[in-house]
Design a protein that fits this description.
It is a single chain. This protein has about 425 residues and is α/β, with parallel strands linked by helices. The chain contains 14 helices and twelve strands. The strands form two sheets. A six-stranded mixed sheet has the order 3-4-5-2-1-6. The chain has a six-stranded mixed sheet with strand order 8-9-7-10-11-12, sandwiched between helices. Helix 6 runs antiparallel to helix 13. It is flat. The model has no long low-confidence stretch (mean pLDDT about 90). The structure holds guanosine-5'-triphosphate (GTP) and magnesium ion.
Length: about 425
């Protein structure tokens, strides 16, 4: 623990609201609680209505206050929650009162940091909490909750325990008589390590899916000028966000908007139409289109007639189908912004493509940049154990042990203060 200060923060959103929640955490807060509710005795986890007064006897607000006794609280310390009216004037007055009672304002993520140091959460739980607070779509919410409720911690702890066991057996091969060890222990630990390595690698393949859920799928509309990319973009985002005109080369910059498709966050981008442009600005726009394509998870290629060659990795849309007599090609999707046709089919195809990109199933664990790096470290060590030990079980044991340490860092069981600090600073105030 860094210090024993009593800390407080506004845990609800700042600004005017119906109810505001101020949270206080520290050791032995019962006297402070008695003072707030103006009672000599109380029970934890009961809601007390109080005419909350400052030290001059002036009413601050009519509030509800709850006491959570250590260790059964979010931080593991005593916690007081004050539910007041959500006016800044009230909140400021409560803050003044708390400052006068030797409390200080919490730093970003300080509540969670205390929960971590009091073993209430491990770092993957904190990662889950950060992701949940950032969640905009339903898929983000469910993925974050899986991680927050300890699902990932169990998987990591299991992997780590297996590595500790394997490493202990490997070290024992040198120190003990083979009669004292389980039969074929050398073969067993090798095959166990291989199984573990493939399981970890498999889980890592879900990183793309997890990242797409967390940061959004990048879907980009491309095609020649004037085919109706901006019109389709506007149709999909549901507003006239991009300029539409019959002048070829209307869109010059990338226009992006976030939308929710089937619970997935999508970053949809409209781009400058591709042609042999002579105009300098249009040329830059076309360069940007190519950059967007590189960064895209999915490309929607818009045409006005069926092209000779079709790229199967893209969704091929033939727009302005109202002007066509023949709309029978099965490998493309015909749309008309003018007649408002074909968009159900287009949306369904986008949904199916997204599911396909996710590999059918979403990852067992929620992986972020921090955990991905450490998983890579683990894979590197297990790879080395298997391929470089050359009969030396001390080397084998050491690599597997390091692999286990990498997982320990994911959980925060093995931690440096930099890792913890970097994680907590991503939280908001009051968490
Ligand atoms: N008939 C018909 N016209 C359409 C349709 N969709 C778009 N248009 C018209 O086609 C013209 C070009 O549309 P935009 O959406 O600006 O085309 P764009 O591909 O974004 O063009 P650039 O930005 O220049 O690359 C406009 O006049 C639209 O009204 C359609 O489905 N049918
Ligand atoms: Mg356009």
């Amino acid at each position: 623990m860094e210090n024993n200060d009593t800390i407080f923060a506004l845990s609800s959103a700042p600004g005017k609201s119906g109810v505001a929640v101020v949270r206080i955490s520290g050791n032995n807060l019962s006297d402070l609680f008695k003072r707030i509710i103006n009672k000599k005795v109380f029970e934890p986890r009961h809601a007390y209505f109080t005419n909350f007064k400052d030290d001059n006897g002036e009413l601050i607000d009519q509030c509800v206050a709850i006491f959570f006794a250590s260790p059964n609280s979010f931080t593991g310390e005593d916690i007081i929650e004050i539910h007041s009216h959500g006016a800044m004037a009230v909140i400021n007055k409560i803050f003044d009162f708390l400052r006068e009672h030797k409390c200080r304002i919490a730093t970003r993520g300080e509540f969670s940091k205390r929960a971590f140091y009091n073993n209430k959460m491990d770092l993957t739980d904190v990662d889950g909490l950060i992701a949940l607070l950032d969640a905009q779509t339903d898929k983000q919410r469910t993925l974050a909750l899986k991680s927050l409720t300890g699902n990932d911690s169990k998987t990591y702890a299991d992997w780590r325990n297996q590595m500790i066991e394997i490493s202990a057996y490997a070290a024992a091969i040198l120190d003990y008589d083979s009669d004292d060890l389980p039969a074929n222990i050398d073969k067993k630990i090798l095959s166990k390590t291989k199984d573990l390595l493939s399981e970890i690698k498999k889980s890592m393949s879900g990183y793309r899916a997890t990242r797409a859920i967390q940061n959004g799928f990048n879907i980009v509309l491309v095609g020649e000028t004037n085919v109706g990319k901006s019109s389709i973009f506007n149709k999909l985002v549901g507003s006239n966000r991009a300029i539409v005109s019959d002048i070829a080369g209307t869109t010059r910059d990338v226009v992006s908007q976030q939308i929710d498709i089937d619970g997935y966050l999508v970053n949809l981008s409209d781009t400058a139409g591709i042609r042999d442009a002579s105009d300098t600005i249009e040329k830059i726009g076309i360069e940007r289109t190519h950059a967007e394509i590189k960064n895209a998870d999915l490309v929607i290629h818009v045409y006005n007639t069926v092209p000779k060659t079709i790229n199967k990795n893209e969704i091929n849309v033939i727009n302005k189908s109202d002007l066509l007599k023949n709309t029978s090609n099965k490998t493309v999707i015909y749309t008309s912004v003018l007649k408002d046709t074909g968009f159900d089919k287009l949306l369904n195809t986008i949904k199916n493509k997204m599911h396909e990109l996710m590999g059918g199933s979403e990852s067992k664990i929620a992986i972020n940049e921090r955990t991905y790096e450490l998983l890579n470290e683990c894979v590197f060590e297990l790879d080395n154990a298997i391929n470089k030990y050359e009969g030396n079980y001390d080397i084998f044991a050491e690599h597997v042990r390091r692999g286990g340490d990498a997982i320990g860092k994911i959980l925060g069981v093995i931690t440096t203060s930099e890792i913890a600090d970097a994680t907590f600073s991503r939280l908001c105030l009051g968490k």
